[in-house]
Design brief:
single chain, about 240 residues, mainly alpha, Four Helix Bundle (Hemerythrin (Met), subunit A)
């Protein structure tokens, strides 16, 4: 039975990538079809950039960055190119996240709506701040040439732990944000949230898919057979060579 449940990594990645793209497509469809589309005029259509950018950056792209070292091709040869790819994907996710935050603050300020009063906003901003600290610490420990080997060895399990923690906080923030948006938007008549209109079914399904994506990524990160074997690679020398040192 254990062998039957043993899924190869690459087909699993293909499924996970499809699921991630589906989440992005669904959040874009929700905002375009039910919430009026996108603009930069400070209206609710400006807000619509917020869920799209957050799901794309803080969940899907961040999840892809987390799984880079599970690719079997990374297990041999120089580690530096994969470090750069991992850091670049995470940086891309961070840029999209900052743009998503800018969209919601722009909308709130133009409409006279208070900022940072809900549990969703507290959780989301806390996640972004933790993400920024994680990226900066990872850059300093693993990419800069003067980081000693003992420091990398000491910080590595902390980096891995907070990587999974940030992803699950991102998932929780997105799910709470979807629920909050539905409560604010579906209030009256036949569109009341409690009557479960088509928009509510669609957005609730999106939330569940985001949750499944996050759980699968964390599960993949914790699977021992998919972890990169430890080696005595001279990472610091690779970085010095790349920097011309």
């Amino acid at each position: 039975s254990t062998a039957m449940l043993d899924v190869p990594f690459l087909p699993f990645c293909a499924f996970l990538g499809t699921l991630g793209l589906l989440c992005v497509a669904m959040v874009g469809t929700w905002c375009q079809h039910w919430r009026g589309g996108f603009s930069l005029d400070g209206s609710s259509r400006t807000f619509n950039w917020h869920p799209v950018l957050m799901v794309t950056g803080l969940v899907v792209l961040y999840g892809a960055a987390a799984l880079v070292y599970r690719i079997p091709n990374t297990w041999s040869g120089p580690k530096l190119p994969w470090k750069v790819l991992h850091g670049s994907l995470a940086l891309g996710a961070f840029v999209l996240t900052v743009l998503g935050l800018a969209a919601v603050f722009c909308f709130h300020n133009s409409q006279g709506t208070p900022n940072m009063y809900s549990l969703h906003s507290w959780m989301g901003l806390g996640t972004v701040l933790l993400f920024s600290c994680q990226w900066a610490a990872g850059f300093g420990a693993f990419l800069l040439p003067w980081a000693p080997a003992w420091l990398r060895a000491l910080y590595k399990p902390i980096h891995v732990f907070f990587g999974s923690t940030i992803l699950m906080l991102s998932v929780a923030s997105c799910m709470s944000g979807i629920n909050e948006k539905l409560f604010f938007s579906l209030k009256n008549g036949t569109t009341a949230y409690k009557l479960l209109p088509a928009e509510a079914v669609f957005a609730n399904t999106l939330g569940l898919l985001i949750l499944i994506f996050g759980v699968l990524v964390v599960g993949a990160l914790g699977r021992p057979s998919w972890k990169r074997p430890d080696s005595d690679s001279l990472d610091s020398h690779q970085v010095r060579d790349a920097l011309g040192g």
